[in-house]
């Protein structure tokens, strides 16, 4: 059996300009299998190995560290051949040379704790479609360091979601938006391409939502979840 993952660094060249451009808010969204989270992990490791940065990696629900981007970061560290430069602890990752640090939080249970964080250079919001307006009102002023960035990485959920309405449809000034789908991911296996093609033929509407990053209306979601 051949793994769908490669053992080499796999930064997507299609996203190079997105990561190198400076912006307060970076919104990277699209369908499944488009390399969004893997690329974010890769660029985060690259930056943390070059500069001294503090990353807060957050998602809505995190019952254990393995549910966070912690695992993606560990894999990318190994792919870049940098294990000797990082200390991988039970609850954080630290670069031994630059002093860069990754901390991990679940927003649902720890939003008040995040409020007290200092010196965050990058807030990485994984599965950001689930972020609420209340949570953002706490997070935005917390990420106050000069030049700091907020990364929103997600597959769109509903057209009524806070992040969709406020960071894609009507984004604030200083927001960089990039949509990417599987057809811009040069690392997809033949197996996954066949799965995607089958989904396109079997359920065109579901395919648009899952693989082309088209958000659903409340009615669409209700129909999809109906027994």
TrEMBL record:
Specify the Phage terminase large subunit N-terminal domain's residue ranges.
Answer: 24-213
* One Pfam short name: Terminase_3
Which Gene3D superfamilies does the entry link to? P-loop containing nucleotide triphosphate hydrolases
Protein name, per record: Bacteriophage protein
**Organism per entry:** Shigella flexneri
């Amino acid at each position: 059996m051949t793994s769908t993952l490669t053992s080499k660094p796999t930064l997507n060249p299609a996203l190079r300009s997105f990561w190198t451009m400076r912006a307060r808010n970076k919104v990277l969204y699209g369908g499944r299998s488009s390399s969004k989270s893997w690329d974010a992990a890769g660029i985060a490791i690259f930056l943390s190995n070059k500069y001294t940065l503090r990353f807060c990696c957050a998602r809505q629900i995190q019952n254990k560290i393995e549910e966070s981007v912690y695992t993606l970061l560990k894999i990318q560290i190994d792919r870049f051949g940098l294990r000797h430069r990082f200390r991988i602890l039970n609850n954080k990752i630290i670069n031994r040379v630059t002093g860069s640090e990754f901390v991990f939080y679940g927003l649902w249970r720890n939003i008040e704790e995040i409020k007290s964080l200092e010196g965050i250079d990058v807030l990485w919001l994984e599965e950001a479609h689930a972020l609420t307006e209340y949570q953002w009102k706490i997070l935005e002023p917390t990420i106050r360091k000069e030049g700091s960035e907020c990364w929103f990485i997600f597959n769109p959920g509903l057209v009524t979601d806070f992040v969709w309405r406020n960071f894609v449809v009507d984004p604030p000034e200083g927001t960089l938006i990039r949509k990417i789908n599987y057809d811009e991911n040069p690392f997809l296996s033949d197996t996954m391409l066949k799965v995607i093609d089958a989904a396109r033929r079997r359920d065109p509407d579901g395919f648009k939502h899952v693989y082309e990053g088209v958000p659903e209306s409340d009615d669409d979601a209700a129909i999809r979840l109906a027994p």
